[in-house]
Design goal:
GO molecular function, one term: catalytic activity
Low-confidence stretches: none
CATH class of the largest domain: Alpha Beta
Radius of gyration: 19 Å
Order of helices and strands: EEHEHHEEHEEHHEHEHHHH
Protein name: Enoyl-CoA hydratase family protein
Pfam families: ECH_1
Family: Belongs to the enoyl-CoA hydratase/isomerase family.
Mean pLDDT: 95
Distance between the termini: 41 Å
InterPro entries: ClpP/crotonase-like_dom_sf, Enoyl-CoA_hydra/iso, Enoyl-CoA_hydra_C, Enoyl-CoA_Hydratase/Isomerase
Structural class: alpha/beta
């Protein structure tokens, strides 16, 4: 059976590529399994500082594989495995960047929202098509709703209307929408910046950004002070401070960026 997801590492960037164009990179059982495996590999590889989630073909991801969903009972639906995959990306200690040259639909938009940074061609389109086939965009709402402004979230979830990359950036789904010919350069701009951060500092910052904050400001300050002091005094923080004073790049910066 041919591999549907590929993984390669170069200059500190681990690129995971969805390569199932025959079904528009739909989230089939095989694709989900391979995507999880390559995400595990990227997390375990010290050479990987940043992960890019990319695709072949005209479509980034069409959502769940509906052929596999037909006639399956609720406990046999592939969507049951999807929350763990989205959470794996959302909580990854390494930054994950989505790179879209083409459309994303339904669960594919959930993948985009789970990533820390999302960059697409202006011509890429998006839609929450679930209601139009009689299902609910429930699972993806966990990653999508924290990204979107409230009004467009209601509008687009309820209507299933298609929207382009520019609007996706305006409503918070994307960080950047650029002309197609500038997509590679824009993704590299982000990965280069992310690779400059200390690996432990990036992981701790991601955890901070996604964690529930204490109810009181005093408790919040206490927790954040402990986190800050720990990293100032830690090996990585001390190396960063020394590198700043010595006007050099810290040891963790990939050779390609020094």
């Amino acid at each position: 059976m041919d591999e549907l997801v590929h993984f390669e590492v170069a200059d500190g960037v681990g690129t995971i590529t969805l390569d199932s164009p025959h079904n528009r990179n739909a989230l089939s059982a095989q694709l989900r399994r391979e995507l999880k495996g390559h995400l595990d590999a990227a997390m375990d590889d010290d050479a990987v500082r940043v992960v890019v989630l990319a695709h072949t073909g005209k479509v980034f991801c069409a959502g769940m594989d509906l052929k596999e969903s037909r006639s399956a009972d609720s406990d046999e639906q592939g969507v049951n495995e999807f929350p763990a995959l989205l959470e794996q990306i959302w909580t990854s200690p390494k930054p994950v960047v989505a790179k879209l040259a083409g459309p994303a639909r339904a669960g594919g938009v959930g993948l985009v929202a789970a990533c820390d940074i999302a960059v697409a061609a202006e011509s890429a389109t998006f839609a929450f098509t679930e209601v139009r086939i009689g299902v609910v965009p429930a699972v993806i709402s966990v990653t999508v709703l924290p990204r979107l402004h409230a009004r467009p979230a209601h509008e687009l979830f309820l209507t299933g209307e298609t929207f382009d990359g520019r609007r996706a950036a305006e409503i918070g789904l994307l960080n950047s929408a650029v002309p197609a010919e500038e997509l590679d350069a824009e993704v590299k701009r982000y990965t280069d910046m992310l690779a400059l951060g200390g690996p432990h500092a990036l992981a701790a910052t991601k955890a901070m950004l996604t964690s529930q904050r204490p109810a009181s400001m005093s408790e919040d300050f206490a927790e954040m002070l402990q986190l800050s002091a720990k990293h100032f005094a830690g090996e990585e923080g001390q190396e960063g401070i020394a590198a700043f004073a010595e006007k050099r790049k810290p040891r963790w910066v990939p050779d390609a960026l020094t």
